[in-house]
Specification:
By secondary structure, the chain is mostly beta strands. It is built from one helix and seven strands; from the N terminus they run αβββββββ.
Length: 76
């Protein structure tokens, strides 16, 4: 069983360009089914305080691999 807090300790890397997107700050879960819809990674430095970029919202189907300390995604 995986807890949502386990995702917060993992760094997210985009396999398309090798860019480190950051660490998971939140997850979107469908409360009716209990399924994880997406993970959310802040895009700006210092939790989005500086800059006007939107957070990365990565759908579950774009997650390719979840490792011990990293999540690989196909995010274009």
């Amino acid at each position: 069983m995986v807890k949502s807090s386990d995702f917060r300790q993992k760094e997210v890397v985009n396999i398309c360009d090798g860019k480190r997107l950051g660490f998971v700050c939140d997850v979107d879960i469908d409360m009716n089914t209990g399924k994880l819809n997406s993970i959310i990674v802040p895009s700006g430095k210092l939790f989005g305080i500086f800059g006007n970029k939107e957070d990365y919202i990565i759908p579950w189907d774009k997650i390719k691999t979840i490792g011990e300390d990293i999540i690989l995604v196909d995010y274009s």
